[in-house]
Specification:
alpha/beta, 6-stranded mixed β-sheet, disordered N terminus, 24% helix, homodimer, Nitrilase/N-carbamoyl-D-aminoacid amidohydrolase
Chain lengths: 309, 309
């Protein structure tokens, strides 16, 4: 195919520098974890990042390895202490900040929610995780009611952000709907890892699949994708088997609008990524590979079915 | 995530050996090209392949580099000479054979059509390319009316085959609809290549994007994906610029249901691939990563819109 020629017609900024914080988490002391994240956020802001993404449920351990009612004590309202902490930080540093939280919406009603700030202590927008997983070690259906806000990008000073959360990453539908609503960049805070009992080959396939599906959302929609994943081993609570738990595979990454990897973190270290995204590139790529021109919407109705039987 | 445990509950065969023919094409002598393909098909059948995929429009040069009315002479009815040739071959070799053709449906009405045989000279099913590209060097909208048969897998003795064609490969919607209709394997006959004027980096991004998006269909739907792409340089007709034309990038490949590459051809050689697919693996993968369980069909209606504005 011919060379995409650079063009400059978008009303958005020509580029934006984004930061990603990949962390291991040692315990459920939320204040300590917030301070740890804040240190990295400050460092990234000082390095010029205008938008920073934290990983899924960064305030605590990944608590879904078991189903325990006392765990609901970790939740808080959207405008709780985490909001006060991170809102103030976003305002002070004058950044767009994407956080993730265990939302207590009402008694007996909880969500896995992303909260976005835009250079202010006020909330720019929220997203409640729409697709909720449930498999051994990831008992999320016990804790989280599926989101009821749909797939709506959050408008900020750097563009419309399509924020999705973890299990959402496996669904091309979610990314497409965000892109069709004008998302300029897709963000995935996530917490996924290996079972140490799996073979190395199986572990490799899983991590590759996870990266491929998210890179494919960049390809299909011609937008950059920014992913923050947790790292470190978290033991299964109350298990007598030392191997029981999740080895979060890190590998946070940023991909450009052709799915190309622009930066990638290690599997096993707490570290940050800094990438300057060329926001004009989306327009350039879409002009030469105009997928949205040719969608067969006359033949897509069955996508809203459970199964075509 | 935990180890997927092998299970054996599907009514399908436990495995099937598939073959892929990647070829360069020297001219528009259809008989010569059919004989060349037939030689490879025979070789693959002798090696044990039960299902063989040819590349897009394998009977001729890729004729869409220019818009010329005389090119319509290359088209033929579905039950034309190509049908007679390949149907007989499928019957003789007792194989499932996936061919691609320039279909003359009626005067002034043409399609880019895949025709599938199942161990018989009779046609098992057809698929008319639904998404039609059009960009410099790929003027397909001039030649092909978009398909009007929707996304329906073709039932054969080895399973339900989700046959899609080239530009369809960029659309997660197409793969999803095939999978939701029970496709056991996705097949993509394709003809895509580089502009020699592009930088090496740009060429790399394009080929990677093409492979990522198709591997992602395997991941999203937990089914294998089989891709046959053309190879070799085809000069742009009537051009005085020797560099003008398409350098088809080959790279035909087969991926398993986690998107893992099982075999991959070179960029620049005519060659065949042989892969034995474990058809039980789909069931195993779907049990541990059950994406279809959690699709938010209540929130997907806008996928049938052109844009969410």
């Amino acid at each position: 195919m011919p060379v995409p020629v650079a063009t400059h017609t978008s009303p958005r900024a020509a580029s934006v520098t984004v930061g990603v914080v990949q962390q291991s988490v040692a315990g459920n002391d939320k204040q300590a974890n917030w301070l740890s994240s804040a240190e990295q956020i400050r460092s990234l802001a000082e390095s010029g990042c205008r938008c920073i993404l934290l990983q899924e449920l960064h305030s605590t351990l990944y608590f879904c390895q078991t189903e325990e009612t006392h765990v609901f004590d970790l939740a808080e309202p959207i405008k709780g202490e985490g909001h006060a902490f991170f809102g103030q930080l976003a305002a002070e540093l004058n950044i767009v900040l994407i956080t993730s939280m265990f939302e207590h919406r009402a008694s007996g009603l909880y969500h896995n929610t992303a909260v976005v700030y835009d250079c202010s202590a006020e909330i720019a927008g929220t997203y409640r995780k729409m697709h909720i997983p449930d498999d051994p070690g990831f008992y999320e259906k016990f804790y989280f009611t599926p989101g009821d806000m749909g797939f709506t990008p959050i408008d900020t000073s750097i563009g419309k952000l399509g924020v999705l959360v973890c299990w959402d990453q496996w669904y091309p539908e979610a990314a497409r709907l965000m892109a069709m609503a004008g998302a300029d960049i897709l963000f995935y805070p996530t917490a996924i890892g290996w079972d140490r009992n799996d073979s190395t080959d199986e572990q490799q396939r899983q991590r590759d699949a996870w990266q491929i599906i998210q890179r494919s959302h960049a390809v299909a929609n011609s937008v950059p994708v920014v992913v923050a994943n947790r790292t470190g081993f978290e033991a299964a609570p109350d298990s007598t088997n030392d191997a029981a738990g999740i080895e979060f595979w890190g590998t946070s990454f940023v991909a450009g609008p052709q799915g190309e990897i622009l930066a990638q973190a290690s599997t096993d270290q707490s570290e940050n990524l800094i990438v300057t995204l060329d926001l004009q590139r989306t327009e350039t790529v879409k002009r030469i590979w105009p997928y949205f021109r040719d969608r067969r919407i006359d033949a897509y109705n069955d996508l809203s079915k459970r199964w075509r039987d």
